[in-house]
């Protein structure tokens, strides 16, 4: 936050992290920062409402936002101090405790079942599903602030929760939303970089290109400009907040470029993060804005072992900035075994309708599922690498559909699949989890409100995932986590080791 700014000169960003000096209390720290921000000479002992002579009403409002945001600032900083101590204690007292045995199956099977990452923002339980800072999805829906009473949680609320571990109130979420809007500007060179690609390029290719182009305006390199590892998290924090704020604009630009003849819709500063994203895509119905809030919230994070999250963590462990790290994560998300699966689900469901009609019977649907399986293909949207129960992200989307679009033909088909597919997969005997995952439902909801371009769906996933990945990147640097460098072996090494162990 630059000093010397007076009167109407506000910005560009209200929310910049600076840990309070040890000699300054959190409360006085907020006053000092406000004092610096105004370029004023108010003594520290003055802590009025900042409506003193010479400070106009707009500045007073800005200071109110600053004070709220500094609550998050101090929560994050204080949590960092405690977490660093916890980490040191874990390492010193329990560093040699074994977490399990590594088998050849694990090495050859994509490291599944192998515990090897620290990921603070969320934890995935095989039976219960995801927990964000120990809160389940239903708990998040109940506790996090919404845009309207009884509505879906605001993604900004989950961002606050992931960063601080604390549930924010509505005033805090609104202040964070305002801060993100202040950072939501995209330089012209980003659009030029995207425009250099053919319009026919996959939306994820264009999106990742845009993120790489955003990196030009990153914060300073912590390694070269500040030798203290204790401070690496600060530029990471700055870049992460800016990246999260910029992504919906880039994503919407890609959508409008490909599907709407390049007719771009500017952001609306009266809207929240999810509502604004829907607006910039071209969807202004209240229900679609609610869906986008829900979609972004439930797709933010799914612990650290999935491809996109792990990729972002791995690249950032080399002290690559959040732009480079998240661009790498997006390229992992674009794979058909990860984020691209959500487009495959809707395409498969539409193929069922094309062949069998919307009024397909249960027996016809069973036949079609067996036909898919017998052809060597999978039924997209069912099964999960970790979960062994119905994905709670699927269930909350189902509840949304029952509330807002119970008569939609594709939703009714999805409901039939929920009844038909799990028993068939169980009978097949090759699937550990026959239950639907998050991808089994999201496409049908988006399609209902007019976002029918399935090829674009993974971009929505990418915007959402930035909140979880970037929150954890901040914590990676705050905790001083090291460069990731696991050991690899050859098949010959494995064969020789197994012979010696026999």
Automatic annotation (TrEMBL):
Classification via NCBIfam families: cit_synth_euk, PRK09569.1
PANTHER family hit by this protein: CITRATE SYNTHASE (PTHR11739), CITRATE SYNTHASE, MITOCHONDRIAL (PTHR11739:SF8)
Pfam family, one: Citrate_synt
Family: Belongs to the citrate synthase family.
InterPro entries, A to Z: Citrate_synth-like_lrg_a-sub, Citrate_synth-like_sm_a-sub, Citrate_synthase, Citrate_synthase_AS, Citrate_synthase_euk, Citrate_synthase_sf
Active site: 338, 384, 439
Protein's UniProt name: Citrate synthase
This protein's UniProt keywords: Transferase
MF annotations from Gene Ontology: acyltransferase activity, acyl groups converted into alkyl on transfer
Single biological process term from Gene Ontology: citrate metabolic process
Assigned GO CC terms: mitochondrial matrix
